[in-house]
Task: structure prediction
Amino acid sequence: MPEQQQWTITATEQPPEWFIQAVKQHTPASSGLYAAQLLWQRGIKDRQQLTAFINYKVYQPASPFEFGQEMHLAIARLQQAYNTKEKIAIWGDFDADGITATSVLWDGLGQFFAQNTQLVYYIPNRLKESHGLNNQGIDNLAKEGCKLIVTCDTGSTNVEEIIYAKQLGIDVIVTDHHTLPAERPSVAAIINPRYFPKEHQLFNLSGVAVAYKLVEALYQSLPNVAKYPLEDLLDLVAVGLIADLVQLSGDCRYLAQMGIQRLQEDFKQPAAARRRPGIGRLLELCQKSGDRPTDISFGLGPRINAVSRIQGDASFCVELLTSRDVKRCNELAEVTELANARRKSLQKDVQAQVAQKLTQLDLSTTSVIVLEDAQWPAGVLGLVAGQIAQETGRPTILLSTEGAGGREQGSRGAEAQESRGAGEQGSNSSPLPLRPSAPLLARGSARSVNSVDLYQLVKEQAHLLHRFGGHPFAAGLSLLVENIPLFTAAINQQLRQSLGSTTLTPTVQADLTVTVADLGKELFLELKLLEPCGMGNPVPKLLIQNCWFENSWHRNQQDWQGKKVQYIKAEFDIRDDSSRSAFPGLWWGHYKDELPIGRCDCIAELDYNTFKKRYEIRLIAVRSSANLALTTQHLPFILDLRNQEHSAIQHSGLIIEDCPTNWDDLRMWLRRCLAISRSTSGLENQQQLAIAWSKPNHQPPNQIWLTLVGIAKYLSRTNQLVTRGQLLEKIGISDQTLLVGIKALKYLGFTVQRQDRSLQITWNPNDSAENLADEAVARFLAAVREEQFQQQYFAEVPLSTIVAIASYDSK
Result:
């Protein structure tokens, strides 16, 4: 189970009345107070800042020639290529920022150079190549007659590869936003906003935004050539900016605002009339409308990223984003959707396996979580590492030895690829000399939290690594499998020493305190003033206190084009004393039974569900607000003896030895214990209840079904009787699930009849109901899985949660 989260509330300074009134002018339907508080605490404190922040039409974007001499050099080289009809290659990248950057250059430069003849593009394979240039790819482009490479979202530190290209007669223009080289490389031009001071309005540009600035400069330099307006590229810019999680300030915010506007306008068109039918189809598939930044961060971005994570080669994504062929775009969008479905399934599987391995760790003595497995696919490790880091409050490194070996190109790609797109643009890459022999090479991804500089942490162990690269929040690495134990011990010792007495705990921060009555359209539109949100301007987190949940339910399976995609989502209504009306919400990645019963506090984001056309909250964190003391005036003393040897349990009160499968089972024991206490004169509140079940050791559901069928066949053959109790003990399931199993047996031709208190089972095989039998068996397996999940939950649920529910039920 994740450690108890630490909740913090952002310190709020009441903004002056003039500022509140200025904000209210933009939100006439509400008081504007909440938005004013957020804007004030995030550094927007004068009228000019406020107006430029909210209204992109009054913002003054920087000229592309702010890049100075480097932009002039780049344009001069492109004009030379234009005049002499040279062949140009765009060298892109496989994440969402790199794909959209490639698409911007493909469409933008494509106004000046004939696509597919004068202009081509190349996207490295995520699973086989690294980010950035490589000699093999350069050789191929040289054979095709390319004389100029324009990189996007990559290339700043590819010094050796740039020299190699020059030796082959190929010039390189670098457009990038990652870490600068120690010295200027031998390029025709390098356009990188990292050369600006941090305060500059262009400093935070992502790869796609830098590519756009290059095209913008070319449009200005050759004003009468392009047939399509420059603004047609802005929707691509918005997708890349928001998906890459860059800080949306300065020109980044301006470009994102403009791009979302274009995205929404295009989506409203009929499919055949859209400029970007591929983006429109993707939005339809993920049930979004393109008018919210979250449509990109939760919809388009993950889908574009999923292609390279699952297939390696994401080249077709450029065609998906730029083609006007509706039929072709629909085909590619569905391939992308399937890749994302596969990514979800793989991520869920790996996350479950990681969670199981976590139970074997003592987090009280673990500073850095390092786990490895031979079956984990490398493409999703960064995503899972990020989830575990958030849940545990500790830097997390996940390693895979899948296909382990000494391949130079593949191993380099692993550490580089996961150093990107995790909320920080800066990236460092420190390749180490190849060892003579690397028979088993583990490749992995790392994510950090709590301001721990992950890059420095990994860099200190460079002597144990094959390669590594990254930045303070994310890193990729590879190392010999035999070095993993030593690496784990060393990196843990290093962080413990640097932390001193500081304790790592998962932290969730809330920005505002609201009530259920506050939730709805007015507050949503008020908080929408802050959009697009991102690094430095996060989505507002709302604290709702003393609330409770009703009508909760969950589902854990989605069927898309005949493919089963496993996922979890709980839905509910939330209430508090401020209103008679409930408000809908959902909790991704959680079951309904994880919602506390009784009053609680929660942190959530307010959202609008385009598909259901309703306002709702997205739950971020929840905790019981009831008195968590183990004894109260009206409760028995609850003693936690779970997972102890039965011979060691000595208890004079009531003992629950069977792991419950629902709260009603547990409530029955609590009420029984309470009744005994109240009926015993002079012993009020002294009755003790011990929960003493052990963590269940479950068999796979399929094996349980085969056991049930085998028992049924044996009983039929021997004509013996059996009691339901004997069946339950032999198979290890609940009575309710057994009833589902008996129904499934009947579809296979078994007859189950009662004889006194026993059951008689006979078998007459019948093939006519094969389809119905399959459905019945599937229902039984689902019931077993649900029951096993519930037992797993009650094996680990915190005692405080049990007490809180008991407290609520006793009122």
About this structure: The first strand starts at residue 6 and ends at 9. Residues 326-358 form the longest helix (33 residues). The chain is about 40% helix and 20% strand.
